[in-house]
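If your schedule permits, I should be very grateful for your opinion on a structural question. I have a record of one protein: its chain in single-letter code and its fold written as discrete structure tokens. Would you kindly read the sequence against the tokens and tell me how you understand this chain to fold? Thank you for your consideration; the sequence and its tokens are set out here.


***
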Amino acid sequence: MDLQSLIALAWPVMVKGTGYTLLFAIASMVLGLPLAALITLVRVLRVRLLQPFMALYVSAMRGTPLLVQVFIIYYGLPSIGIEFSPITAGILSLTLNVAAYMSETLRGAIGAVAQGQWLAGTSLGLTRRQTLRYVIAPQALRAAVPSLSNSLISLIKDTSLVSVIAVTELMLATKELISTTFQPFPLYVAAAGIYWILSLSFEQLQRRMEQRLAFPH
């Protein structure tokens, strides 16, 4: 098969796979960020009943491979009566995983804010929650943007793991094309190029957010 015919055959399939990749990455980021914020609040504010469970959750998510988590959610949970479609299972796996990492990013950013800011909030009569919301969080968010963007870029690449549950995202779409065309080199290079372009796009978005948040408003 010549290159022109290969491109004509592969283009629509890879575009569709790229769409699924973006769906998984963006949906998992949008759902994972509030979950990460909740975990961070529980741990920073030291909510007694929930703090040990959140610490255990973060440790488990960071200490086990994402691939194993995908298998547990898609293939393991049905044995106890909980079943998800491949797309839902993929988004859920990625969301739970990235939320754990982002919660640590947010917790580290909050910890980087000078202790004097907490004391200043207290001296103004603010509670610990109010100090966190009005004084600490805006400063921590600016510091957390680069690491949060790194999480999103890593998430784009991690979406390739959901191909194991038969979701035709970019990686599985590429494998299916290779099985019919027997042209692994150009197709894998094309897939790598698409992942790279997606990552570059989000790097540009990260830079704009950093510039926007560079100075307090």
In short: The chain has a mean pLDDT of 89.
